[in-house]
Design a protein that fits this description.
The chain is mostly helical. Among the domains are: about 55 residues, no CATH class; about 210 residues, no CATH class. The chain is about 35% helix and about 5% strand. The protein has 28 helices and 14 strands. The strands form seven sheets. A two-stranded antiparallel sheet has the order 1-4. A two-stranded antiparallel sheet has the order 2-3. Strands 5-6 form a two-stranded antiparallel sheet. A hairpin with a 6-residue loop joins β2 and β3. α5 packs across α6, α15 runs antiparallel to α16 and α26 runs antiparallel to α27. It is elongated.
Amino acid sequence: MVYPKLNRISILLGLLLILGLAAAACSQEPETVEVTRVVEVPGETETVEVPVEVEVTRVVEVMTEAESAAANIPFADQWAASGHADASAEAFIHWNEDDPAEVPANCAKCHSTPGFLDFLGADGSAFGAVDAAAPIGTTVECEACHNEVAVDLASVVFPSGAEIVGLGPEARCMQCHQGRASTVSVNDSIVNAGLDPQADLDTVSADLGFTNIHYYAAAATRFGTWAMGGYEYEGQSYDPKFDHVEGYDTCTSCHDPHTLEVQFDECTACHTDLRDAEDLVDIRMQGSLVDFDGDGDLDEGIFFEIEDMRTILYDLMQTYAAEVSGTPIGYNAQSHPYFFIDGDGSGEIEEGEAVRDNMFNAWTPRLAKAAYNYQVSLKDPGRYAHGGKYIIQLLYDSIASLNEAVATPIDMAALHRNDHGHFAASEEAFRHWDEDGAVPGSCSKCHSAAGLPLFAAEGVSITQPVASGLNCATCHSNLETFELYVFDEVTFPSGATVSFGEGEPANTCINCHQGRSSTTSVDRALNGLADDELAENLRFQNIHYFAAGATLFGTEVKGAYEYAGNEYRGQNEHVGAFDDCTECHDTHALEVVVAECADCHEDVEIETAEDLQNIRVSEVDFDGDGDVTEGIAGEINTMAELLYTAMTDYAVSVGAAPIVYDSHAYPYFFNDAGEGYSTWTPTLLRAAYNYQYVQKDPGAFAHNGQYIIQVLYDTLVDLGADVSGMTRPSSVQESDS
């Protein structure tokens, strides 16, 4: 059918008009378009269709990028509601009023999609640098993370220059969420001001300014000393990467990679008392039973420990600035450069003071370091979860540093820097292998988080990743029911197998707290040499640390060196309810349950763990000093001192080098020139082994005190020392404590 010419044109224009009215949010630019007009030809019975030009309004729907993506791309709705897509955020509009209006090259990597692609080299440029400013108007869009280069990222280089390798998808996140400064940056700023970071601590310099970590440096917090994102003080050791439980140990396993929100429902599988995401700040695991901020509250979350320590630091910074810099300082989190002159002395920076012309200008290296760490502790909102104990260490050390320079230092006695031993990730027991990159199989059972579980399951130890201390999964096979790995019996270095009882929790402890040597290994090293023969090939045999299990089981495992022909005490059987590791020590804090000891030992005033050294049951004067009221610990200490003297005398008598002991430096025994001791005789090596044994089990007096006294007595005899006033304990079981 052919419609009359006016009807056809009217229908076309009418449709266009309706569409135009219906699209209030659409573009309505006038445009000339071609339509068909029906024309009647005079004298003909038919009509013809003739194209004509008509100016109409073309309806073009304008969609935001987020809306367009949501219509076509998986997870686009989630992304569109995230901070990465917020086109109105300061992170993406900060440069809109600049001339030229562009994102500078040093900011474009993280504040625009073209800049990130430039950094990756996904735009054809070189990888690892932004070559040009980026246009304004973009956010962190899909293409930034979903391209061939980004998906293959497996490493990240931090501002300190440290590179973390072997990463997964989180490598994409960490390119930006790493901060923009480090220990190195702060030291460089001090050097550039003509000062020495260590020698000119309290010198004010107009050329020294504040160094800013920047925002959301979650990766720097999480990787701790491996990234050196905080200011790390010379001579101190710091926590490395915080290891959460398996499966929830990366950016993308804890955060939804598109909404960026913490996957709270996953948290509640272990943290069962949480009601909503706001409660995450209240988390405190059994592995953190130290009152870091000194307020006496061990129930508060690590978040609050950090907040209180930052408050202490801020107050001390203000005291230092007034006393040493001569200019009062204040902080305003909303205004760059954050630190300003507190002109009215109110302790706060009001709006009128938070202006660039009033920025703080009396920096010293000491204050610059502390201020940097103050900012580090603020600019990662998830600091308490990403690496809370690393942040606590930074704050603690900053407080300690400022304390050195103020007239009235604050009392730090109640503050704590490190967690308990099993969770003290900054300590040598876990940091020893950082340069190697792995813990060897001979050490991994006790010095890595995954070593003991493997040993429990397979009975073997292999190389493991370096650890951030032990964690819940080290001892617990199930993190919902918290069942322990079960050991029915445990084999010691001597080859002896012992047990506290089938499946007893204390068996878990003595897998590691058993030492690494024994009478057997010492005898093997001596290899039939004459007792007083100087032997160049002999090396010191080390029991290792905290061999409490070996002490407790005594001659059953022969952890100390036992002299042939002598009898020694076996397992120290204390009273029934307090007869193994987990009954006498808090299983997480590791500290002795002192209050329980006081219930029985009423003759000794017991308020602290140190008071336990005053306990004694026997009335025998073992060390021969005439004091039968001192604790068993005192008897042991006297005999150990006499042993050290006897060793030095013996070395001289046989023509060996003078011998010197240092408990903190391997290999512990040195000659008087400070070199590792090398002129051993079998007699001297046995004595040194037992001397070290006593030093390395600080609880030996309680674990099996009279066994230790037997060992010391026999060692003194072997060295030819005078023991005429001493008494060797009987080998018949008699409680020590």
